[in-house]
Write a structure and sequence with these properties.
Layout: H1 5-16, E1 20-21, H2 30-38, H3 45-60, E2 64-70, E3 76-82
Antiparallel strand pairs: 1-3, 2-3
Helix pairs in contact: 1-2, 2-3
């Protein structure tokens, strides 16, 4: 499934609103943010693969970035952050 700029912008907004980790086993994995936006269930293998592929594609396109920084416990961890903005966020139900 292909996701347009409107969905990708919403994922960026969700990522920007919190602290999201890069690793899929983290309780605050960025995949949960993406899954919330696209309506996927991470506990379903096919959905998790779809979310993982979407995140990888967004990283390749520099829409998201993986960075290392200290977490709340002062341990160096990998986080997913917003890269280049996709476009304007849509405020209507027509998105």
């Amino acid at each position: 499934m292909t996701f347009g700029d409107d969905v990708r912008a919403k994922i960026q907004a969700e990522i920007a609103s919190g602290e999201w980790r890069t690793h899929p086993t983290a309780k605050n994995w960025a995949g949960y943010a993406a899954a919330k936006i696209i309506g996927s269930d991470i506990s379903v293998s096919v959905d998790k693969k779809q979310v993982t592929a979407l995140l990888k594609d967004m990283i390749v396109k520099d829409q998201l970035r993986n960075v290392q920084r200290l977490d709340a416990s002062r341990h160096m961890r990998d986080f997913t952050v917003v890269g280049e903005q996709v476009g304007e966020l849509c405020d209507t139900s027509e998105c």
